[in-house]
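Long-time lurker, first post. I've been practising inverse folding by hand and with some scripts of my own, and I keep getting stuck on stretches where the structure tokens seem ambiguous. Below is the full token string for one chain I'm working on. Before anyone asks, I'm not after the true native sequence, just a reasonable design that respects the backbone. If someone could post their per-position residues I'd love to compare against what I wrote down in my notebook.
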């Protein structure tokens, strides 16, 4: 019998706020354990929570970015469980009335675009972090109480590749909206993965298995691939698949059973008595909607149309909003020919400088205006390619006005034909050996003379003009 996968993800995203969800403790990474804590996030008796409005705003903006319907009346509940990472033995979350309902993400698959539906998005507080050592374990409550948004998808994905495509698109949209850094290494984005299998053509879902707290795309992909095979092997050997929570063992490259899967009633949800409902007016939601950036997919299409750049280039540039913003600022006022030159320069040399220095584009000294000016000088023939390549690293490191630098140092390109012919004649007269090589059929010798002329002109000659002159002069010998 042939089976198909049904995959759904519960993605937890830490929101980009200055303070925790229900207290004024600052959110900082890299601090000593248990230093950013207070009676509220430590769950002391009598300590009362105060809601973080910014967290509500960022959750609503996420929902708007993903096409969700915003609930004007959202409520918080207590999710009761006993575990060392939750000192008060319950987590404040949204169960019955979440902030965002519906929406979804479009992904690209080999068979075309596919829409992955979102069931809902709810807001809650993150648990503390349990650190395991050689012989002991410790709990760091610095993370406890961090505003955490949970995005729950429908089981619309059918492969590990689709799950990663969904998470990639989701991450891109959330980073674009500025609601989270979505840094997987720092735990800003984690997913619980739900997978079941069913006979092809069957509409009823199979028995669901959950794999908890996956914090890398590669791990999620490998875990889904393994679990899909495991469940098929179970069916092939008439071994029942049970609803359970499993963990991914990255060393053994397999999932392992942890416990039977809890249902909602196991958590004994009940309304949080210390918090009032969240009431959102239409005016406030619309105010937050106006803060949203252009959708990444829409931006890619517009950049291709506006600047005439390739689809691949638009894809790479738009992956990081900072790069796309910088490029568009630099491209302001350029025609499509100059914009393509700018794009090629950015995709190759500028990104290479970013990689070699470890700096983002916003951390370099070169302004978008300076890069635009440099491109204009090149397109107009005021400077040649080698000069452009020479100036770019200096601008990246120190900044400055390219026009002023070119004028001050006399870096303008030599394009006067008479002057260039004199350089060519000088190079040919000084190098009889390569001349004879050319006469003997070694056409590559022409490149030697181009290089000599570039040296004589101190790099200012236009290589294309020089190449034509060299070819004509050598052919006449």
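-- Answer (accepted) --
I ran through it position by position. Result:
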């Amino acid at each position: 019998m042939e089976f198909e996968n049904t995959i759904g993800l519960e993605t937890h995203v830490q929101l980009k706020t200055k303070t925790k969800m229900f207290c004024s403790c600052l959110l900082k990474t890299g601090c000593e354990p248990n230093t950013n804590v207070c009676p509220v996030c430590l769950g002391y008796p009598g300590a009362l929570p105060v809601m973080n409005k910014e967290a509500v705003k960022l959750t609503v903006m996420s929902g708007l970015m993903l096409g969700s319907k915003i609930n004007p009346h959202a409520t918080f509940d207590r999710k009761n469980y006993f575990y060392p990472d939750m000192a008060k033995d319950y987590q404040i979350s949204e169960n019955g009335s979440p902030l965002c309902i519906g929406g979804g993400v479009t992904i690209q698959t080999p068979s075309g675009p596919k829409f992955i539906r979102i069931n809902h998005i709810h807001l809650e507080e993150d648990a503390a972090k349990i650190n395991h050592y050689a012989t002991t374990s410790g709990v760091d409550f610095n993370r406890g109480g961090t505003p955490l948004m949970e995005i729950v998808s429908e089981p619309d994905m059918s492969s590990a590749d689709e799950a990663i495509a969904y998470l990639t698109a989701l991450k891109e949209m959330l980073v674009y909206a500025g609601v989270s850094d979505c840094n997987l290494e720092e735990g800003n984005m984690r997913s619980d993965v739900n997978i079941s299998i069913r006979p092809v053509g069957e509409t009823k879902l199979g028995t669901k298995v959950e794999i908890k707290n996956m914090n890398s795309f590669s791990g999620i992909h490998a875990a889904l691939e393994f679990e899909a095979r495991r469940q098929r092997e179970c069916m092939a050997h008439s071994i029942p698949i049970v609803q359970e929570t499993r963990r991914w063992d990255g060393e053994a490259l397999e999932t392992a059973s942890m416990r039977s899967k809890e249902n909602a009633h196991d958590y004994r949800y009940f309304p949080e008595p210390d918090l009032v409902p969240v009431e959102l007016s239409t005016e406030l939601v619309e105010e937050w909607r106006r803060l949203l950036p252009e959708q990444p997919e829409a931006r890619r299409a517009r950049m291709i149309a506006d600047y005439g750049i390739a689809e691949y280039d638009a894809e790479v540039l738009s992956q990081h909003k900072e790069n796309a913003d910088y490029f568009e600022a630099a491209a302001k006022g350029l025609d499509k020919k100059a914009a393509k030159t700018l794009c090629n320069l950015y995709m190759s040399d500028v990104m290479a400088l970013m990689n070699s220095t470890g700096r983002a584009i916003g951390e370099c000294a070169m302004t978008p205006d300076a890069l635009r000016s440099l491109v204009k000088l090149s397109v107009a023939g005021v400077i040649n390619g080698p000069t452009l390549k020479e100036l770019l690293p200096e601008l990246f490191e120190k900044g400055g006005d390219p026009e002023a630098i070119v004028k001050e140092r006399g870096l303008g390109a030599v394009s006067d034909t008479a002057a260039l012919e004199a350089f060519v004649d000088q190079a040919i007269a000084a190098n009889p050996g390569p001349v004879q090589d050319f006469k003997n059929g070694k056409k590559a010798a022409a490149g030697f003379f181009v290089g000599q002329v570039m040296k004589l002109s101190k790099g200012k000659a236009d290589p294309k003009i020089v190449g034509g002159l060299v070819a004509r002069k050598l052919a006449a010998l």
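A couple of notes from the structure itself: The longest strand covers residues 112-125. The chain has a mean pLDDT of 91. Happy to go over any region you disagree with.
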